[in-house]
Design brief:
The chain is mostly helical and 143 residues long. The chain folds into 2 domains: 1-44 and 109-143, no CATH class; 61-108, no CATH class. The chain has 6 helices and no strands. The longest helix is centred in the N-terminal third of the chain and has 35 residues, at 2-36.
């Protein structure tokens, strides 16, 4: 029983994170497209793409040596993610005590995500329902 509850909680939380990621990905995609489309013609040329990629590289290359180390890459990625992580933490910390309890963590969007995945309404999410939900959100299951 306890293992089933833990598995169910993991599935629900994973679904919530996947849904949040899909929304963020859409917004980020639009922002990147607009940033790369420098002549604002609604298209990205190969030259615009190249210029954008070089600018991105230079942002990561903090010491300006023309190479990006693993540490520079990690720092760059974390700096981009940190505001979203802070916002997500604040949303889960419903009593604003600076900590997330197990109840707060499990309760966040649980009912909505669970109901969305529980297609047949039997109060359980089967492997088939979880797979279909993942495919719907991301186009395919990853192995």
């Amino acid at each position: 029983m306890k293992n089933n509850l833990i598995r169910g909680t993991i599935i629900v939380l994973t679904a919530g994170l996947l849904a949040t990621g899909a929304i963020a990905a859409r917004k980020n995609w639009e922002e990147r497209f607009n940033r790369l489309d420098t002549d604002k013609d609604g298209k990205i040329s190969q030259q615009e793409m190249k210029v954008g990629r070089i600018a991105h590289f230079k942002e990561m290359d903090k010491n300006g040596d023309g190479m990006v180390t693993k540490e520079e890459h990690k720092a760059f990625v974390f700096a981009k993610m940190e505001p979203r992580l802070d916002k997500r933490f604040q949303k889960m910390d419903t009593d604003n005590d600076g900590e997330i309890s197990a109840e707060e963590f499990a309760a966040k969007k649980q009912t909505r995500h669970f109901n969305r995945m529980d297609v047949d309404g039997d109060g359980m999410i089967s492997r088939d329902e979880a797979e279909k939900a993942a495919k719907k959100r991301h186009g395919k299951m990853r192995n």
